[in-house]
Amino acid sequence: MRQIYSAVLYTKQSLPQKEFEMIAKDATLKPDSKRKLMIFVVGETARAANYSLGGYSINDTNIYTKEEAITYFNNFYSCGTSTAISVPCMFSDLSKENFSKSANYRENALEILQKVGVNVLWIGNNSGGCQGVCKNLEKVKTLKSPYDEALLPEVLEQLKNLEEQNLIVVHLQGSHGPTYYQRYPDTFKRFLPTCDTNELQKCTQEELRNTYIILCFIQILL
Q: Rounded to an integer, what distance in angstroms lies between the CA atom of residue 221 and that of residue 104?
């Protein structure tokens, strides 16, 4: 199996590389006297069906956001069920219908913003990486923490060095399986019982659901 994998990888690397396509050659940044900051949080396998804002009622996953001015968009769909598809598509100008992995050879939204002068920073804790989205960014920081809360100090540190226009993208590890129970400390076990093993077949549907919902709850807090 290792030999087959190596052969496929070598073949891919030997093929002529597709030319990188620039899609916003005339993009410019409108002058603004006010300093601006946007923090964009990219979750991980966070399904709408498991959020109270979307009608989920078994556990309250939005307990801390009820009094906040939150706009919930209920008509959004991912391009795929894997990080390798959904994350690049999120920052592409292509639609779900015509998106493909060739988008890695096409200018994405973050690259355009950086080109016109926005201070773009990618901070990732996802074990799958940024899937090519951040490969051309000047400021990328990668963590390898079991808990996404490790991202918070990094964000706070970046707030000390803001420029005129700023975008910080935070990519969560979220509910990467199968070791869901290792993604949060025991203090966050608010929905019981939980599945505390990576042998998911040994857990009940209720235990699996509660463990997953805890991770959805944490992503909201972040």
A: 31
